[in-house]
Design brief:
7 strands, alpha+beta, 2 domains, about 280 residues, 12 helices, Butyryl-CoA Dehydrogenase, subunit A, domain 3, 7-stranded mixed β-sheet, single chain, elongated, Nuclear Transport Factor 2, Chain: A
């Protein structure tokens, strides 16, 4: 019994690392947990006798499980791209995992890679695993594993550059919206809004005065015209948004959904608990 508890304790000491590896491989929290659980079952069955480096052994097991899951996913071809990626605002646990090195944009890029490419890139570039350890997992030579990671890296770097350009464009749209709102330029607001734009406010924001939901460009423009005078441009979970933060304390966050160069949705969030879950960074206008 003591031996089993000691083994479980050693596994738990590695769980966070294994979960991070699995999440970056799979892009799904539930699937990552399944992969980590499978690693525990295998360790529980075999024990750690003869295992010199338990972290390395477990990482290899999780990587192989993830590779099988990715190949199975590819063969089914039943999920649209990114269908299993979770909402970055609604799930704080997911957001905490993303905060250090990976975001939804990168996960979408990783989804386009072949399973072996994704594994080689994640294990080497994100977790510094040597290619001679990656090679047996993908059943290739170390040189071939290096080529897999290199191809993946080029795809990721190209997508990252495009993403940065996209973020700049979205930031300019939000900045222009805030400027038009402050000045009361109704026509400029209309020009930035999709005809079917929807404004939604959470219950805490509604208590400040706005309606829970406003639909249509004219109606949303009227809601903001001449207002938002002290709102500041911000990054909200890595995306262009705005925040009202009197005294430096966020009170209301505006989350913008932009498609085709138009604002299609605005969320007003004022619930303190939810605001505390967001990654906010105020930008210079």
């Amino acid at each position: 019994m003591e031996e089993h508890e000691a083994l479980a304790h050693r596994f738990e000491a590695n769980r966070a690392h294994l979960r991070a590896v699995a999440y970056r491989m799979l892009g799904s929290m539930s699937e990552a947990d399944d992969a980590v659980q499978e690693a525990w079952l295998r360790l529980n069955r075999s024990g750690d006798a003869g295992v010199e480096n338990l972290n390395s052994w477990l990482t290899t097991v999780v990587a192989r499980v993830c590779l099988d899951m990715l190949r199975s996913r590819k063969s089914r071809r039943e999920e649209p791209l990114g269908a299993h990626l979770m909402d970055p605002i609604a799930n704080p646990e997911h957001e905490a995992l993303l905060a250090d090195s990976v975001g939804l944009a990168l996960l979408v890029v990783l989804e386009t890679l072949a399973p072996a490419e994704r594994l080689a890139f994640v294990l080497h570039d994100m977790f510094a695993m040597p290619f001679d350890e990656i090679a047996p997992i993908v059943q290739r030579s170390a040189a071939a594993a290096r080529q897999l990671a290199s191809r993946a890296r080029r795809r990721v770097q190209g997508a990252t550059a495009a993403g940065e350009t996209d973020l700049t464009g979205r930031r300019e749209i939000v900045d222009a919206f805030l400027a038009a709102s402050r000045s009361g330029d109704f026509d400029a607001l209309i020009a930035l809004l999709d005809p079917g734009v929807v404004l939604r406010a959470d219950p805490a924001a509604v208590r400040m005065g706005p309606a829970a939901e406003v639909q249509g460009a004219a109606e949303v423009a009227a809601t903001f015209s001449g207002r938002a005078r002290t709102a500041q441009l911000a990054l909200v979970n890595g995306a262009a948004g705005a925040v009202w933060a009197p005294g430096g304390r966020p009170r209301v966050v505006f989350v913008f959904t932009i498609d085709g160069g138009k604002i299609v949705q605005i969320e007003m969030l004022a619930d303190p608990a939810r605001l505390g879950e967001l990654d906010l960074s105020i930008l210079e206008g």
